[in-house]
Amino acid sequence: MLSLELQEGDKKLLYLGVRNKYCAACAQRSPKELHACYKNWNASSSEMENDIIRSGFLAAEKDHGVQYTRFIGDGDSSVHTTLIHGIPG
Ligand SMILES: [Zn+2]
Questions:
Q1: Using CA atoms, how far apart are residues 81 and 89, in angstroms rounded to an integer?
Q2: Per-residue pLDDT tens for 33-87?
Q3: Exposure pattern of 2-28 as b/e (b: 16+ CB <10 Å)?
Q4: Whole-model pTM?
Q5: 35 alpha carbon to ligand 1 midpoint, in Å?
Q6: Sequential DSSP letters for 23-81
Q7: Less crowded by CB within 10 Å, the N or C end of the chain?
Q8: Domain residue ranges of the chain, discontinuous segments joined by +
Q9: DSSP letter, residue 21
Q10: Would you say 1 and 73 are in contact if contact means Cβ atoms under 8 Å apart?
């Protein structure tokens, strides 16, 4: 799982994006069985990181004109490189 939080100061949560590759229910039973599925991402982990970062930054810039304050990832430091160098503008 990967989540990105954008906050204004320490007050308001501006954006929260979550991508899940894993769903416990999917892992334990037949995928055809209906359940509240937590899995919302099927591509690779690096694409997941880029997608959530891009979505979060675009939403924050568009709606609030703020910068990101906090990133919670899986320890892959390349994500921070993406954050610093990969954001247009
Ligand atoms: Zn599921």
A1: 15
A2: 788 887 888 888 888 888 887 787 777 777 766 665 566 665 555 656 665 555 5
A3: bebbbbeeeeeebbebebeeeeeeeee
A4: 0.48
A5: 6
A6: -HHHHHS-TTS---------S-HHHHHHHHHHHHHHHHHHHT-----EEE-SS-THHHH
A7: C
A8: 2-86
A9: S
A10: no
- Kindly give the distance from the C-alpha atom of residue 73 to the centroid of ligand 1, in angstroms, as a whole number: 22
Q: What Cα–Cα distance (Å) separates residue 64 from each residue in 13, 14, 37, 45, 50?
A: 11, 8, 31, 28, 21
Structure tokens belonging to residue 8? 């204004």
Residue 45, number of CB atoms within 10 A of its CB: 14
Q: Separation of 79 CA from ligand 1 center, angstroms?
A: 26
Q: Give the Å distance between the CA of 78 and the centre of ligand 1.
A: 29
